[in-house]
Design a protein that fits this description.
Blueprint: E1 2-5, H1 6-11, H2 13-21, E2 26-30, E3 33-38, H3 49-61, H4 70-77
Parallel strand pairs: 1-2
Antiparallel strand pairs: 2-3
Length: 80
């Protein structure tokens, strides 16, 4: 990971953005202390929504309320 100072990042932003678009991650520091990271925009944002729905449904299959009904839980929450 490349590290640049805040002043350098400000003056060379266009070049840094080009590097990030090519997949590089850049750490920005102020007086040697890391304050930000430039990462590619699609990094971590793309998710398979169908797989996410399947995962949620799988988790729900094993979940139970321990013999309570939804109505009992709602009424219990209204007490406070």
């Amino acid at each position: 990971m490349k590290t640049v100072g805040a002043f350098e990042a400000k003056t060379r932003l266009n070049e840094l953005l080009r590097q990030v678009s090519e997949g590089e991650t850049i750490r920005i520091t102020r007086r040697g202390v890391p304050i930000a990271k430039l990462v590619p925009a699609d990094d971590g944002e793309r998710r398979d929504l169908k797989q996410l729905v399947r995962d949620i449904r799988d988790i729900r299959k094993g979940a139970s309320l321990g013999g309570l009904s939804i109505r009992e839980l709602i009424n219990e929450g209204r007490r406070y």
